[in-house]
Amino acid sequence: MHSFTEENYLKTIYHLSQFTASPVQTNAIADGMKTRPASVTDMLKKLSDKQLIDYIKYQGVTLTEKGKTTAVGIVRKHRLWEVFLVEKLKFKWDEVHDIAEELEHINSALLVERLDEFLGFPKRDPHGDLIPDQNGFFEPVQNIHLHEMSCGNKGVIIGVSEYSSAFLKHLERLGLTIGIIIEIKEIADYDGSVELLVDGRKINVSREVTQHILINYK
Amino acid sequence: MHSFTEENYLKTIYHLSQFTASPVQTNAIADGMKTRPASVTDMLKKLSDKQLIDYIKYQGVTLTEKGKTTAVGIVRKHRLWEVFLVEKLKFKWDEVHDIAEELEHINSALLVERLDEFLGFPKRDPHGDLIPDQNGFFEPVQNIHLHEMSCGNKGVIIGVSEYSSAFLKHLERLGLTIGIIIEIKEIADYDGSVELLVDGRKINVSREVTQHILINYK
DNA sequence: AAAAAATTTTAGATTTGTCTAAACATACAA
DNA sequence: TTGTATGTTTAGACAAATCTAAAATTTTTT
User: Can you tell me the mean pLDDT for B93-115?
Assistant: First the structure.
């Protein structure tokens, strides 16, 4: 078995490699793990010894199959527990991330499958993220961030890419929750803030916010 | 916050002090924690520094109020999670102990209270152990072990004091589960094995088994 | 292509929890 | 009450995960 720390490194590397095809760099991992680059280097050696990552000095890392399987397993647990907390225990979507960070390390394959069944095999978690199935598969996503869209574009809010309570509460106050249909009315040259049409109302959101909203856009 | 290890020490000390009024000894803790006496001594110093135990060299330890509160909190979580696993996820009573050992360290007061509510404020866990309430209170138990009873005595199986899957499966095979009424027909001088009357049938159980069955006997 | 900047790694230290072996304290028995 | 057995603590080491400071490598700039 792997330590919590090892699991967290794998998860961080997994999430970082979602955004790029190239190897994940030490500094990026250090940021994600809120630790120092020197500590990351130490851990990369260990994960490499355990065949969980391919590591080339100074070049960065990629997950091996074994590493990816482990990482996806943790992501699956995290998202299932989030569904449990919201659906069964009446938590709000901004309250569950930190608790799920702990629960994701509970080690029992049977538990995960029973939980999945108990929850009715949910497809997405409360933040709109897809839940990998028992074999680690899930349809590749082709969402784009709101800030990548252009004037006149329409779409549906399908998820977020930031899970802090502060951010999620802010979205809720703005009425920008999952499933909401939005249309881009104007993008300010000055600060990148965006005017949205939501449910007939006009709403102004900062660039900061647009960078963390995922849109299902075709 | 306390580390998992610290929490496990506190829990072990708590359980050991259930059986005796006198201070808990280093070797007993080492047994319970499956570690060495020298390691226990190191940890006792740390717990003492944190005011979780009263520790006198060579004499043993007792929990402080703070230590007891912490320990009971962990026991509460353990037992609530066991109920969840059996009642909601359809685990068997012999499958839940190890998973609950992990879940008991999840850190969220709100989670515990929501879980309690979700489960309908259960009074006992699947092994018959009482679940402390939110304030750590629970009626003092006056169960006795089956091996402490005499010929002709009757009682109800109210719990167990051993949680291994092997033991619990054995009980189930014998039909000795919680709520079952038993009567002692005979106690063998030779090996301490006991003949029980259960539901009209006669059953013979080893002394080993009688030492881990708790009876509500008045 | 050399210099400067950014990134990454090494070296050496620290903390937590563990260990073995040896010393120390207490209990008990002759 | 002295000796032996049992139980406990100290001393010194080790592994995991982290850190700072310095050295090494790669990338970017001029």
Answer: 97
